[in-house]
Amino acid sequence: MKASALANANIALVKYWGKRDEKLILPQNSSISITLDGFYTHTTVDFNKRYQQDLLVLDGQEFRKGSDVYDEYTGRFLDAARGTAGSVLKAKVVSKNNFPTAAGLASSASGFAALAAAVNEALGLGLKGRKLSMLARRGSGSAARSVLGGFVEWKRGSRKNGSDSYAEQIAPPGHWPDFRIIALITSKKKKKMSSRKGMAQSVATSPIYNCWLDSAKGDLAKMRKGIKSKDFSLVGEIAEKNCLKMHAVMMTTTPSLIYWNPATLKIMNNIVKWREEGLECYFTIDAGPQVKIICLQERVADIIRKCRKIKKIKDFKILRPGGGAKTIDNHLF
Ligand code: PMV
Questions:
Q1: DSSP states of 69-98
Q2: What is residue 16's three-state secondary structure?
Q3: In whole angstroms, what is the distance from residue 321 CA to residue 71 CA?
Q4: Which of 94, 271, 278, 321 has the smallest count of CB within 10 Å of its CB?
Q5: Residue 161 CB neighbour total at 10 angstroms
Q6: 1 to each of 22, 86, 162, 214, 333, how far by Cα in Å?
């Protein structure tokens, strides 16, 4: 009962920050993202009676029961998957990212989308689309979106059991082939506070949390419209403002969550300046110090030339719209 899968990371253009149900991983608001070709996770899972307990090997490091990574994430996900399948078999999971893990580059999104697709195959669950995104959601909310390719919305839903909180494609990757995200790496260190813990603290303590939820509704409507009509300025403006609103919530959380470093801020200031000079590009930032530039293909060369002059940028990668999670025959063990 072994299976493998590949899944791409995604970057949210309208963010999710806060849950209405911690166990089922149901969000406080809907979110919209772009699945990206280039940052991916490759995962192999094997359910077998010869395993006494679950084992996760992530980028060469082993995690078992008793470790945070297993107890808070993989273990909870595997239990949810076993519950769906009516199985009691323990699993071995080997997973590799082609980019830094847990540094604000959506590794949990590609990680759990790949694990969900592999588990679906290994346990013969036969889930597709919406249903598969709901399984991935149990690992990490943003993973629900990486199950699908292109521009994707993860719906908040209103039901208590989560049966209407799933991902749906707004447009396939081919809809906007010259849409680009340039991921700028400013630090390869693991972030200090996980999204899971951070967002729970924001819901509980940020005095502007309700403003964030109210304004998300308008952002979602404009973002859907911008994507469908390929209105780049609208998509960029909404994405950048939405990101700043999320970071305002993070900063006003107790204890405050400041994920930026000096390089993050320098790049943000530069992007605003470049835009004023006529080079259209926007930024978005998740729970980490990396900056993702949103632009069109025709601007990439100019932007990269300017980025090369910023010494604090450690590395960069140009990412284009990518496809959804898929099973493959290449096993990691
Ligand atoms: O799904 P998580 O726990 O990785 O949280 C993702 C949170 C953000 O990346 C900050 C926003 C988002 O919608 O992806």
A1: IIIIIIHHHHHHHHHHHT----EEEEEEES
A2: coil
A3: 33
A4: 278
A5: 10
A6: 30, 14, 28, 46, 13
Higher pLDDT, residue 99 or 274? 274
The model carries a pTM of 0.97
What pLDDT is stored for residue 193 in this prediction?
86
Q: Is the CB of 12 under 6 A from ligand 1?
A: yes
> What's the CA gap between 211 and 277, in Å, rounded?
32
**Best of 15, 19, 69 to mutate for ligand 1, by most ligand atoms within 8 A of CB?**
15
Q: What is the mean pLDDT of the chain?
A: 96
**How close is the Cα of 120 to the center of ligand 1, in Å?**
23
**Ligand 1, atom 10, residue with closest C-alpha:** 286
- Name the one residue in this structure whose structure tokens are 């297993």: 70
Nearest CA to ligand 1 atom 8: 286
Ligand 1 binding pocket mutation candidate from 16, 76, 253 (most atoms within 8 A of CB): 16
* Alpha carbon of 278 to ligand 1 centroid (Å): 31
Q: Tokens representing 166?
A: 């799933």
Residue 120 Cβ inside 6 Å of ligand 1? The answer reads: no
Contact present, 83 and 121 (Cβ < 8 Å):
no
Q: Tell me, what's the pLDDT at 310? A: 94
